[in-house]
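Q: What would this chain look like folded?
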Amino acid sequence: MHHVAMNPKRPGVLFMQKHWDVMRSDNAGDSWTEVSGNLPTDFGFVIDVHAHQPETIYVVPIKSDSEHFVPDGKLRVYRSKTGGNEWEELTKGLPQQNCYVNVLRDAMAVDSLDDCGVLFRHIGGTGVCVF
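A: My prediction, written as structure tokens:
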């Protein structure tokens, strides 16, 4: 397991980024379902939940266990508004070429402002996105 996240409004619903899957539990961790869906890779380190929308989650996929950088040299945050399986890439303000960085376990957070921001730090710099 790399990271577990939840929205305090729904403490029984947990989301986990583990070595090779994005997972969801609807019963406080008693059982888990894979929700990696259409991500470019299901490997990664970070996951977090939107502060006001408990079904909206964010991840930053990494190429593989042996290649710890974002796929295709493009830094993308992926968002699911449905609690997993259906993902959209978010690229606004992020480098989309020659970017071979990694966002590690506790290096991403979602703030609680009305326009929820996703903040993260990667090896070599920082990123701040408002989606």
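The mean pLDDT is 88.
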